[in-house]
Amino acid sequence: MISIQNVNKSFGDLHVLSDINLEIPKSNIVALIGPSGAGKSTLIRTINALEEIDNGSVVVDGVEIHAKKTDLNKARTNIGFVFQSFNLYPFLTALENVTVAPRKVKGLGKEEAEQKGKELLTSLGLGDKFDAYPSKLSGGQQQRVAIARALAMDPQVMLFDEPTSALDPEMVKEVLDAIRKLAKSGMTMVVVTHEMGFAKEICDEIVFMADGKIVEKALPSKFFSIPDTERARNFLSKVLEH
């Protein structure tokens, strides 16, 4: 489903991704974890070409994302992306935020788009917020609207870039619960997260990054109990001590 091969990326003299190789089968859920500055967010943004790569290849569902011949707009309709910040249109209601892309990009009629949007929002616990503007929603509610907006395009892959990092602690659970529900549907997902318990619970594979490299890949049960590398053991000792 997702094949990343020999990917490198630099910002000036800073080599932020170094020879990245990663295969993610269909319906698998992968967590990208590691210290700040490891390259996690840069890597996930290369999957839908929000970040260009210097060399290598990123293939999603048979489409080489960074090839010059690729229609990026078309390819991105297959890849949902949920950002750290919610990026909702402040002048549109929750329902309008969810339906605008399917109507404008996929050509859905208003009635069909709204029916689907209402179903998605309801499934994420927002059945009473169709007409609410983002300013009237909590951070957790806004992030769930952002998830519904991404799902409205019927993507084959969902990417989450630290989806709870901008939330107050009491709002984190509702967003993680929404992602848990999505995980049960068989969606292929890549999640950059600092929520270690969540990663251990729902992910099929943990990918630990540091200094722009993939240091270790393992099943959650193994990674969180007996990681192979000293770098991973040092990281876990710091994030799991509390």
From TrEMBL:
UniProt family annotation: Belongs to the ABC transporter superfamily.
Topology class, membrane: Peripheral membrane protein
UniProt-annotated location(s): Cell membrane
Alphabetized InterPro entries for the sequence: AAA+_ATPase, ABC_ATPase_HisP-typ, ABC_transporter-like_ATP-bd, ABC_transporter-like_CS, MetN_ABC_transporter-like, P-loop_NTPase
GO MF annotations, alphabetized: ATP binding
Pfam family, one: ABC_tran
SMART domains recorded: AAA (SM00382)
PROSITE patterns from the UniProt entry: ABC_TRANSPORTER_1, ABC_TRANSPORTER_2
Key words, A-Z: Amino-acid transport, ATP-binding, Cell membrane, Membrane, Nucleotide-binding, Transport
Spans through the membrane: none
UniProt key word Nucleotide-binding: yes
Domain ABC transporter: 2-236
SUPFAM superfamilies per record: P-loop containing nucleoside triphosphate hydrolases
CDD domains: ABC_HisP_GlnQ (cd03262)
Keyword Transport: yes
Designated name of the protein: Amino acid ABC transporter ATP-binding protein
Superkingdom field: Bacteria
